[in-house]
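[job 4471] stage=fold_predict status=RUNNING
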Amino acid sequence: MKLITWNVNGIRARHTQLIELMEREQPDVVCLQEIKASPAQVPEFPIHSALAGDYRTYWHGSGGYSGVALLVKRSASASLDVTHPEFDFECRIATCVVNGVRIAATYVPNGGKDYDAKLRFLEGMAAWTETLRASGEPVAICGDLNVALTDRDIHEKERKPNQIGARPEERALISRLVDAGLVDVGRTLDPDNEALFTWWPPWRSMRQRNMGWRIDYILASAPLGSSAASCVSMREFGTSDHAPVMAVFG
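[job 4471] inference complete, writing structure tokens
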């Protein structure tokens, strides 16, 4: 299975780039964040696109803020039965089952305007993941989690004391996901890379200089997580401030 997660920072601005990425990579599942559009505002795939009819799509948004989406290849799933955990708010999580794995397109609040809401969302996600583990249902949490798990997930020149996105209580809640049996696929397959980032501040050529943060993840429980053959941050692709993250599972 090939899975891509991408914070597009506006689907209307990045729609053609998404089509280009999907036509090139032919992923089984795409998880999008920050679509910033209601379902009625999402552009349709052009008729000439090779993707036309190949994917089931679900858009979970309410306007020019937040929002997530799931795009699942028809050959990978017989249906697209989407659910939302009870901690969802502002259209931040949508899940479906593909090949026996519950895939969650997830957009954690940044926390800058309401830090407590961010912690509540992370608490809810951790508890939900633990419940899934207890039930034996595999899960893959994919998306912009807005937390750098360790200091090396932030470029050294971007590290500041007590900054949101790197506080101990945030990191502890992401660690709870790992403790609940999820594999941090990107870091597991690239453990020594000190320049593995997925988001860059949109100024001073930070992306070109690769001075960023790793805040976009694919966290997957076994057997999916342990079968990962590759997981890359596609820094050279697109004009969002986030890179697509693509994982291939055996």
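[job 4471] summary: The chain has four helices and eleven strands.
[job 4471] exit 0
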